[in-house]
Specification:
With 252 residues, the chain is of the alpha/beta class. Helices cover 35% and strands 33% of the residues. The chain has two domains: 137 residues, Response regulator (Rossmann fold, 3-Layer(aba) Sandwich), CATH 3.40.50.2300; 105 residues, OB fold (Dihydrolipoamide Acetyltransferase, E2P) (Beta Barrel). It is built from eight helices and 15 strands. The longest helix has 17 residues. The mean pLDDT is 85.
Length: 252
């Protein structure tokens, strides 16, 4: 099987190449560090398998898959992501797999076996799989808001506007680009409502928007303190129990 690796981070590409070395039936025929370069390379090389990162600057992995479909090029695609919600929402489809960063040998072995079985069953399955996954990814999504109550009015917040959520005494406080508000929902309830967005429970008292992190400082016993954009005075802790997952997500 001829494969191409696409990721905008060189260390991530090197990791996949290293892990694939032990599979004698896999030949790496190219790599790309952005979506545009990937599309050009795929058209030229026509690989059997594509290991494709989702979160890339410019074109995302989904954009690359969509462009390939338009050009009627159908490699088997293994999406790579650091966020569980992408896996949960987009990849419950046979013959197209996903890998969560950091990639383990055991999980990759399962992926390779799945690809091999797919090719044995039906060489024409690729087109069906990509059609299905793109329908799922591109289907209209309901608009989701988090509404807060302030001065007698309900104020809807986009999840992307929310920087962090914390517990202060008996109150759940939402800090956002629009201001600070008290929510009548618990932190756990808000975590559930925001599970499809890039929020991380850094501590039992804090939920942070990963896209709004400004700085990460090492703290004691292998933990961290986070500084969020727009709220430099707040130092958000990452608890020891959550530090390992945080390091994986942030590639620390």
């Amino acid at each position: 099987m001829r494969c191409i690796i696409v990721d905008d981070e060189a260390p991530a590409r090197e990791e996949i190449k290293y892990l694939l070395q032990k599979y004698s039936d896999i030949e790496i025929v190219g790599e790309a560090d952005d979506g545009k370069q990937a599309c050009e390379l795929i058209v030229k090389v026509k690989p059997d398998v594509l290991f494709l990162d989702i979160q890339m600057r410019g074109m995302s992995g989904f954009d690359v898959a969509s462009e390939l479909y338009k050009q009627e090029i159908y490699p088997l695609i293994v999406f790579i992501t650091a966020y569980d919600q992408y896996a949960i929402k987009a990849f419950e489809i046979n013959a197209i797999d996903y890998l969560l960063k950091p990639i383990s040998d055991e999980r990759l072995s399962s992926t390779i076996e799945r690809i091999q079985n797919t090719q044995k069953r039906n060489q024409n399955v690729n087109k069906i799989d990509i059609e299905d996954i793109l329908k799922y990814i591109n289907k209209p999504k309901l608009v989701q808001k988090i509404s807060v109550y302030c001065n007698g009015k309900h104020i809807p917040l986009d999840p992307a506007e929310i920087t962090l959520i914390g517990v202060e005494g008996r109150n759940t406080v939402i800090k956002s680009r629009k201001g600070e508000y008290v929510s009548n929902l618990s932190l756990s309830e808000l975590e559930e409502k925001l599970r499809d967005f890039p929020f991380f429970r850094s501590h039992r008292s804090f939920l942070v928007n990963l896209e709004e992190i400004q700085e990460i400082d090492h703290w004691f016993h292998g933990t961290y303190q986070i500084t969020m954009k727009g709220f430099p005075k707040d130092k958000i802790p990452v608890s020891r129990s959550n530090a390992h997952k945080f390091r994986e997500i942030m590639n620390l």
